[in-house]
Design a protein that fits this description.
One of its GO terms (molecular function) is succinate-semialdehyde dehydrogenase (NAD+) activity. This protein has 491 residues and is an alpha/beta fold. Helices cover 39% and strands 20% of the residues. Bound molecules: nicotinamide-adenine-dinucleotide.
């Protein structure tokens, strides 16, 4: 690691960012951020309350018209400079993420690249926010559509991808000309604090991005969502919290983007290249310690290859090294907090009680951090909790099937619909699966498919709206239609 921890932490602002200034909470309250690998306190931050949240919205509203009138090129240039700065600071961002979230350093570097890419992508999209013109079929008017910024937005992010979840929202909001209040997860606010500072250094004017980290999420979100000046909420997090926010959004009919939980099936057919499937499974399951909304949650493997797949997968998983993500060679870090460790432990225990066997792992790891040993479970029953709920840990349950129809039926047997993965050498089957699977994303012979240029999002209770791609900026704009009288029309 190219940075000294104490020097890095000293660079991270600890206040609330309101109208371009870092300040203390009105109440003077603070909260601590912990390293999940060691239990050590990394920093003490100002904890925003309702008054601070409203001050942040006031700041966002005060500059919203001026910001909306800036040229797309100006906004594009700010995002491009932010991309360059985040990339220059990759050592610092990577170390911060490993410190506060636990992911292995090499993966944290991967997230810097991935997260920064949203800034570059939306710097390019800012100047290509196309409308359309078309003649009315009757010839009476020319019809013109154009996109306008939706207005002040509340952006709420989770802890699992501290940089990318922020850039995926801030990038398109800046590109579209919206002002924002960002509320990072209280478990991992340091990356967002440093990212916001970086946006200021990239030239973002005061008040456009305000950051209110704090220990009580609802103390921040409730007054903001009750204020009719707020026009949008973009949330990434769990489905239960998403539902609460959707209900609150109804009162002022807010635009909403909801990136919620997942329960991804990873389907391996009898004709799959098993080595390729195992490699894909490692990415789909073990990336981010299994703490990803896209994480493969259920391995649904044809009965004729299930044993071979499980053995190869367990052998690869056995090569993982569990430990502090900052340490050399560590490829699997701790879970985010004690509650997460307890949940993963109880999911595995429940599966074992219902007949599953751990081929490898199956228990918490050693040390003071929240470690769980990477695990492969076989003979998992469909009614085990591990097959129904989002695991969010390094645990791979394997279920078997005999027919294609059965594989699709098992895969769709969940209220979630975010990511899915299909391994087969038969391309006709790939298209049948694409039709049959009720998921917003599908990886075909590919285990990691997230990309800033792709429209990311779910169906069913995994949410609504898309982040990234050409679609990502549309979430932050309202389409306006103008009908222009045709001077040559008879009417
Ligand atoms: P969470 O729902 O507990 O928290 C997410 C954010 O919401 C945090 O900032 C939290 O402080 C805030 N929050 C919590 N309660 C709130 C309330 N009552 N009102 C307003 N805000 C509130 O989720 P998490 O544990 O941080 O993240 C994990 C979840 O996020 C998983 O379910 C995962 O699948 C999901 N996720 C989804 C995507 C996606 O793109 N679909 C990406 C990453 C994570």
């Amino acid at each position: 690691m190219g940075v000294k921890v104490s020097e890095l932490l000293a660079k991270v602002p600890t206040g609330l960012l309101i109208n371009g200034e870092w300040r203390d909470a009105a109440s003077g309250e603070t909260f601590e951020v912990e390293n999940p690998a060691t239990g050590e306190t990394l920093a003490t931050l100002a904890s925003a309350g309702s008054d601070d949240a409203m001050a942040a919205l006031d700041a966002a509203c005060a500059v919203k018209d001026e910001w909306a009138r800036t040229s797309p090129r100006e906004r594009s240039n700010i995002l491009r400079r932010a991309f360059d700065l985040v990339t220059e600071r990759k050592d610092e961002f990577a170390a911060l993420m490993t410190l506060e979230m636990g992911k292995p350093l090499a993966e944290a570097y991967g997230e810097v690249t991935y997260g920064a890419e949203y800034l570059r992508w939306f710097s390019e999209e800012a100047v290509r926010d196309y409308g359309a013109t078309l003649p009315a079929p009757e010839g009476t008017i020319q019809m013109v559509t154009r996109r306008k910024p939706v207005g002040p937005c509340l952006l709420i992010t989770p802890w699992n991808f501290p940089l990318a979840m922020a850039t995926r929202k801030v990038g398109p909001a800046v590109a579209a000309g919206c002002t924002m209040v960002l509320k990072p997860a209280k478990l991992t606010p340091l990356t967002s604090q440093y990212f916001a500072q970086t946006m200021i250094e990239a030239g973002l004017p005061a008040g456009v991005l305000n950051v209110v980290s704090g220990k009580s999420a609802s103390a921040i979100s409730e007054p903001l969502m009750a204020d009719s000046r707020l026009r949008k909420v973009s949330f990434t997090g769990s489905t239960p919290v998403g539902k609460t926010l959707l209900k609150a959004a109804a009162d002022n009919v807010l635009r909403t983007s909801m990136e919620l939980g997942g329960n991804a099936p990873f389907i391996v057919f009898e004709d799959a290249d098993l080595d390729q499937a195992v490699e894909g499974a490692m990415g789909a399951k073990m990336r981010n310690i299994g703490e990803a909304c896209t994480a493969a949650n259920r391995f649904i493997v044809h009965e004729s290859v299930a044993d071979e797949f499980a053995k190869k997968f367990a052998a690869k998983i056995g090569e993982l090294k569990l430990g502090n993500g900052l340490d050399e060679g560590v490829t699997c870090g701790p879970l985010i907090e004690k509650k997460a460790l307890d949940n993963v432990t109880s999911l595995v225990d429940d599966a074992v009680e219902k007949g599953a066997t751990a081929l490898i792992g199956g228990k918490p790891g050693e040390g003071v951090g929240y470690f769980y040993t990477p695990t492969v479970l076989i003979n998992v029953s469909r009614d085990a909790r591990v097959a129904q709920e989002e695991i969010f840990g390094p645990v791979a349950p394997i279920l078997t099937f005999s027919t294609e129809a059965e594989a699709i039926e098992i895969a769709n047997d969940t209220e979630f619909g975010l990511a899915s993965y299909v391994y087969t050498e038969n391309s006709d089957r790939m298209w049948r699966l694409a039709d049959g699977l009720e998921f917003g994303l599908m990886g075909y012979n590919a285990g990691v498919i997230s990309n800033a240029a792709a429209p990311f999002g779910g169906v069913k209770q995994s949410g609504m709206g898309r982040e990234g791609g050409a679609e990502g900026i549309a979430e932050y704009t309202s389409l306006q239609y103008i009908g222009v009288r045709n001077p040559y029309a008879n009417a």
